[in-house]
Amino acid sequence: MKRKSYSPEFKSQIVLEILKEEKTMSQIASENEIHLNQLHKWKTQFLQEMPQVFRKQNQDMEKIKADYEKQLDSLYAEVGKLTTQLSWLKKKNLASTTTRQERMEMVDWTASELPVSHQTELLGINRSSLYYKPVQPSQEEVAIKHRIDKIYTKFPYFGSRKITQRLNAEGVTINRKKVQRHMREMGIQAVYPGPNLSKRNLQHRVYPYLLRGLSIARPNQVWSIDITYIRLQRSWIYLTAVIDWYSRCILSWELDQTLAMDFVLETVRRAFTVGGEPEIFNSDQGSHFTSSSYINLLKEHPSVQISMDSKGRALDNIQIERFWRSLKYEEVYLKDYETPREARNNINDYMMLYNHERPHQSLNYKTPGSVYFQ
Fold it and tell me: pLDDT at position 135, please?
């Protein structure tokens, strides 16, 4: 299949449409017959290069030329070494250290010097998996996932078996296998331990749970991070947030349509900017939080201890789970968001209210923000 070529103008228009958040990325991908991963890559590239537009380009051309010639000499010297490194790399099993989705996102569709067929061979993925026409989720799938979300929020100890029974009792014809698939895609699981509940990166280290029996006595003692499902009228998006356990203050949050790794990393970086550093940073054992990029980001802050929930025990991360429940009952379920932008605006308003206006009985009727920033 011939690889499509897109002009910079076309890419810019698509990215601007994504940033408007008037449509989901799935809708935009489907309408333009472009792979969802490609849209995510364009968006990431656009956001990374945006600051360059505002930087003054006042460089000496002679220096540029000299630097170029120096770099050229260096590049020629590197050719032999890189050839050896490539041979060594091909002997390694990339599939054992990255997920299939991560490797698919590594494909550079604009790299004319390295055809997609060669890239897929090096990455160990099937080229045909890259070529598909994105399809919008059916209204039936959307409705079922929304209902699963409400059941799970009300009964967080329900596993796939009880959720299936509940749906069947409500007149929804669905089997447990399909419910399990939906729950995996939504990133939810029952709060009690059970087999094969955590979809973590098996090759990555899982850190011990450090909060058992710990007395939480001050801000920045413990932070937690998690991801939850947010419903839209015809689709859904994902929300991640970092919470301070002592004050219940939400330090940072972000929405994303694809569960890409970037939105988790950006949320963590923003939390460090806002709140400094916690003594302990807790998460579940999901693939985002056992990934090397997440672990390495936390290791950039040597004083931070990494903690992970016991497998299948969402209650180990109870503070963020309680916040999800409040958010959904007090905001999400009362609204009917049509677009990602509408969801973002309303959730932003709720975050401000939650942090700075709504007092908590457990905080002696102070707000989370006043306790955290006091």
Answer: 62
CB contact at 8 A, 220 and 277: yes
Q: DSSP secondary-structure letter at 171?
A: T
- Identify whether residues 252 and 143 lie together within a single domain: no
* CA atoms in the 13 A half-sphere facing the CB of 304: 23
Q: For the chain, how big is the Rg over CA atoms in Å?
A: 23
Nearest to 329 by CA among 149, 194, 121, 190: 149
Pair 211, 305: CB distance under 8 Å:
no
Query: Is-above-0.70 flag for pTM?
Result: no
Dihedral, CA atoms, 132, 137, 141, 142, nearest 10 degrees? 150
Q: Which domain holds residue 364?
A: 222-372
- HSE-CB at 202 with a 13 A cutoff on CA atoms is 4
In a domain, 236, yes or no: yes
Residues 259 and 279 in one domain: yes
Residue type, 226: D
Whether 208 is covered by a domain: the verdict is no
CB 240 within 8 Å of CB 264: yes
What pairs with residue 60 in β-bridges? none
Strand partners, 223: 244, 281
The string of pLDDT tens digits covering residues 16-44 is 888 888 888 888 888 888 888 888 888 88
- Over residues 150-202, the pLDDT tens digits come to 888 888 778 889 999 999 999 999 999 999 888 888 877 665 444 333 444 44
Q: How far is CA 302 from CA 278, 279, 280, 296, in A?
A: 11, 10, 11, 10
CATH number at residue 358: 3.30.420.10
**Total structural domains in the chain?**
3
Q: Kindly report the length of the chain.
A: 374
For CA atoms 30, 35, 40, 43, the dihedral sign is: negative
CB 216 within 8 A of CB 181: no
- Clarify whether residues 352 and 253 are in a common domain: yes
